[in-house]
Amino acid sequence: MSAITLKSVKKRYQKSLVVHGVDAEIEQGEFVVILGPSGCGKSTLLRMIAGLEDITEGEILIGGTVVNKLEPRERGCAMVFQNYALYPHMSVAQNIGYALKVAGMPRAERDGKVAKVAKSVSLEAYLDRKPGELSGGQRQRVAMARAMVREPKVFLFDEPFSNLDAKLRVAMRAEVRNLHRSLGVTSVFVTHDQTEAMTLADRLIIMNSGIVEQIGKPSEVYHRPASLFVADFIGSPAMNLVRGHFAQDGYFRHGKGGMIHLPTIAPALISQEVSIGVRPELVRRVSATAKGAIAAVVDYTEELGAARLIYADADGSRIISVDTATDALGTGMPIHFAIDPADLHVFSHDTGRRIELGEAQRAATQTRINA
Amino acid sequence: MIERSPIFDFITYAAMVLGMFLVLVPFWITLVAGSQSLQEVSQVPLNLWPSTHLLENIQAAWTRADLGPKMVNSFIVAVGVTLGKIVLAALSAFAIVFFNFRARMLCFWVIFITLMLPLEVRIVPTYSIAANALLPFQVILDTFGITGLVETLSGIRIGLEWNLLNSYTGLILPLVATATGTFLYRQFFMTIPDELVEASKMDGSGPMRFFFEVLLPLSRTNMLALATIMFVSSWNQYLWPLLITTDRANFGTVVMQLKALIPAQNGTPDWNVTMAGALIIMLPPLLVVALMQRWFVRGLISRDK
Fold it and tell me: Cβ distance B284 to B72 under 8 Å?
């Protein structure tokens, strides 16, 4: 039985549909991250699970029971908010124990639980302080402790780290992961930060303007994006994407009239309007005489330390490549790339969905996903 | 604005001193006159230095205006209005800000409009309501013919009456029913982040629990500010108590008694006693402001959250 089931869940505000029928299954103990740009409906979806927003259409099941009509407290969810949402007039201990107090747990038992949870997020020393006297990271930990103390069936995180600085964010990420490992509670985490999403998630739900673009493991989403949106959204530097069509002569002709030396492995695609994409790290530098070399001109390079990014121009279309060589490269210098046709992702121009290119490509992506 | 030059400093200080002078001089004259004997206070020009008769003047004023019971009355009214106002303001603002009901904006505007109708403007209808608080219901019954119907059927004539004249209820209720406090609370409640409301929902607390355990503790400074304003303004009420109490001996307030302290047309011009009485009467609000001013200022300007 799934921990959470979403059945064509929709949300409408007045006239506008913000969540267009989401279907998803979240397994027991799974860590699922809902990822998407701001305004894609990911927070709304989370708040519908929490019970803070009405569900316009569809059903949400938690642990097998339909919760559409249940109050937040009856759903067995605990939530960590973006702005911590701690009660400013209560001490840390009171904040953590408030839900237990509301539930009518006797004081002694409550204090024991609060102390135990506070210890697990190393807040024992701060129990008597007010939230105003704590740092951002500590406040976030109080918020997490407050969620944990209720021993919920489901943890919901609504962009909990977006107010923290970069370093703290990494530390909190590790903390959340450890917590999940030790408690094993089903978690749903909303974020717009793809690094956070990729590192935390067992599975990702990628949303764009109210629609689920893809549900899958992080590696799956990265190596086999189901749509143009996912291909473009996931990965940094972003995937090289060019719109145009494959021609008979073994060249790809792109929108601006230029051409790239790139034959297709699927003859059926020829002349069809598509977008092709390839990950920058799969664009190899080769010598000018190599077979299938694509000629380009260096625009500029970006030094990353371990590698550098080459931004090049191939007859009017931008190609980014991750390069580990150390030779000097200046603007205007000629450069040659090779791309394995099996590494290409092809997306239909009309629907934006992925077009599978046959076994060779499937095998290539599968090895990467498994790696 | 930061402006630092000797001339500017001088102007600022001059303005402040002038302001202070304007505010304090009347108080000073009251104090001085209250401490002088009848001869001293009758001198022209008035000697602006206090004399030694303050205590005896205070005693004279206390007995002449029967200030003891009147003080108690004033306290009952001021405290009643203050408490009533805070409860009404907090609850009505709570309903307007945190509940999404159909008539929300209508309620808000109805409350808002009462701001434009202070007691002085609606004094006649308010008086007639106070004379019979059930009058509106009687009118409704009469208009719909229910009174007539009941009378023909049973022979009993319905006559609703609830007289508030000469009572603490009558003194307090009309002063409670104004919008200022609701506004102060509304502004404060609007600054409470939605996430706090949601967090308490997730924690399983219902609306009343949220109100008592989260909103009220957070609004403590607001509450004290409102209490200060309300205490002072209801203590200083003159017109309404004057209208509603015909039984001065039992329900008169101290501010009404000021009139009794003013020397009669052809009587002894003992303004020293009048001033001493004024001193006593303005003392309680002064004390309240002095004690509460720290909270008062904080509650009105900053939101320490």
Answer: no
Side-by-side strand order, sheet with A16-26: A16-26, A4-13, A57-62, A65-66
Shortest Cα distance, chain A CAs vs residue B113, angstroms: 30
Kindly list the domain boundaries of chain B, sorted by start residue. Answer: 6-304
In angstroms, rounded to a whole number, what is the distance separating the alpha carbons of residues A70 and B142?
A: 47
pLDDT digits (tens, 9 = 90+) for A122-155: 898 999 999 989 988 899 999 999 999 988 999 9
A96 interface with B at CB cutoff 8 Å: no
Residues A197-212 have pLDDT tens digits of 999 999 999 999 999 9
Handedness of CA A43, A46, A52, A57 (dihedral sign): positive
Work out the pLDDT band at B305, boundaries 50, 70, 90: very low
Q: Contacts of residue A47 in chain B, CB cutoff 8 Å?
A: 198
- A27/A64 Cα distance (integer angstroms): 11
Please enumerate, as own/partner, the contacts of A37-42 that have beta carbons within 8 Å and a separation of 24 or more. Answer: A37/A192, A37/A208, A37/A233, A38/A192, A39/A209, A40/A207, A40/A208, A40/A209, A40/A210, A41/A11, A41/A207, A41/A209, A41/A210, A42/A190, A42/A192, A42/A207
Q: Mind listing the pLDDT tens digit for each residue in B151-206?
A: 888 877 777 788 888 888 888 888 888 788 888 899 899 999 989 999 999 998 88
Task: Looking at the complex, report in whole angstroms how far the Cα of residue B110 sits from the nearest Cα belonging to chain A.
Answer: 27
Nearest alpha-carbon partner for B244 in B184, B126, B165:
B165
**Cβ-contact B181, B226 below 8 angstroms:** yes
Residue A264 pLDDT grade (very low, low, confident, very high; cuts 50, 70, 90): confident
**Global pTM value:** 0.80
**Average pLDDT rounded to a whole number, residues A231-236:** 91
Q: Which of A72, A82, A146 sits opposite B201 (nearest CB)?
A: A72
Check residue A15 and give its pLDDT. 85
CB contact under 8 A, A81 and B205: no
CB A56 within 8 A of CB A10: yes
CB neighbour class for A303 (10 Å; exposed up to 12, middle 13-18, buried from 19): exposed
Name the minimum distance, in Å, from the CA of A187 to any CA of chain B: 16
The CATH architecture annotation of domain B6-304 reads: Orthogonal Bundle (1.10)
Q: Are strands A308-314 and A317-323 parallel, antiparallel or unpaired?
A: antiparallel
Query: pLDDT tier at B3 (50, 70, 90 boundaries)?
Result: low
Report whether the peptide linkage leading into residue A37 is cis, meaning its omega lies within 30 degrees of zero.
no
Q: Look at A85 and B203 and tell me if their CB atoms are within 8 Å.
A: no
Comparing CB atoms, the residue among A47, A71, A85 nearest residue B199 is A85
Is B267 a residue whose pLDDT tops 80? no
CA–CA min distance A90, chain B (Å): 9
The predicted model gives A46-55 an average pLDDT of 93
Q: How far is CA A299 from the centre of its chain?
A: 30
Residues A61-70 have a mean pLDDT of 91
Instruction: Give the Å distances, CA to CA, from B100 to A343, B94, B103, B298.
Output: 54, 11, 9, 30
